[in-house]
């Protein structure tokens, strides 16, 4: 990690620590812009250290995690506690593998350095009943309309905030969150335990149903398609798009092609420009499109690019996103009733 970071022209490692207790003193001494923190550390659990750090001295943290089910759960908890992002340890030899991941690691550290640090959210916080979006009570609307969401850095918590208030009869939701393989199943299960809708990892060829959210599996593109009158989810291992697989643009472009004006597109916090062109395509196809506003983003890159390209009908704070989306769905229902 030190070698990779020090090779970058715009960053340097000011210190390394073998455990959190040493790290605590080094942080006080060097006041770093970003901390990389291993999930598994001696003398103190990485989560315990992160929780104390974010309470006493909030700073941008990038977690370093192994590809195990247990570590995926810990990593998701770390994001809840305020970590900006995470990188995975490669399956290859540590030195050779990390060199292959060098560009990705550097990008994530750059994004973290400029990120807005969010307060930690209680682990199983659910919205108050007054904050929940009311039922649609129109089966036709739920069947015909779709909600399409794309996110990257900061997106796991942003997606949770969008999904939690949604009613169980809301239209089907397809989600691409930039994540490696091994983490999206835990992410979906965690959301499913909190939400009024059903949240699951998408499966190839399955029918897309109202009241369900489908998350693109890590390292796999998710596309929307049709089979007769039904929407279906398609998965593939095609080349990365905008250096990402899954790619938000891949999902958004498929929604523009197969759902058109029946879709509502949402682009949330994230670095880079993935999703900007796709959101514009959705808008041009008749979809209503929303971008998260700068003040509520951890990283404003993806929404900013979409807005600059003319892809967003509305710019909305994260706290109001679920209600704005469902208001657009309800307007569609009113038009159906008038017809």
Automatic annotation (TrEMBL):
Location(s) in or outside the cell: Cytoplasm
One GO cellular component term: cytoplasm
Cytoplasm in keyword set: yes
Sites of 4-aspartylphosphate modification: 38
Gene3D superfamilies: 3.40.50.2300, Methylesterase CheB, C-terminal domain
Keyword Ligase included in the entry's annotation: no
GO molecular function per UniProt: phosphorelay response regulator activity; protein-glutamate methylesterase activity; protein-glutamine glutaminase activity
SUPFAM superfamilies: CheY-like (SSF52172), Methylesterase CheB, C-terminal domain (SSF52738)
Active site: 152, 178, 274
Domain Response regulatory residue range list: 1-104
Entry superkingdom: Bacteria
Keywords: Chemotaxis, Cytoplasm, Hydrolase, Phosphoprotein
Domain CheB-type methylesterase: 140-332
Enzyme class: hydrolase
Xref: Pfam families: CheB_methylest, Response_reg
InterPro entries for the chain: CheB-like, CheB_C, CheY-like_superfamily, Sig_transdc_resp-reg_Me-estase, Sig_transdc_resp-reg_receiver
EC number: 3.1.1.61, 3.5.1.44
PTMs per UniProt: Phosphorylated by CheA. Phosphorylation of the N-terminal regulatory domain activates the methylesterase activity.
Family note: Belongs to the CheB family.
Family annotation (HAMAP family): CheB_chemtxs
Domain comment quoted from the record: Contains a C-terminal catalytic domain, and an N-terminal region which modulates catalytic activity.
Role description: Involved in chemotaxis. Part of a chemotaxis signal transduction system that modulates chemotaxis in response to various stimuli. Catalyzes the demethylation of specific methylglutamate residues introduced into the chemoreceptors (methyl-accepting chemotaxis proteins or MCP) by CheR. Also mediates the irreversible deamidation of specific glutamine residues to glutamic acid.
Protein name: Protein-glutamate methylesterase/protein-glutamine glutaminase
Organism: Pandoraea thiooxydans
Gene encoding the protein: cheB
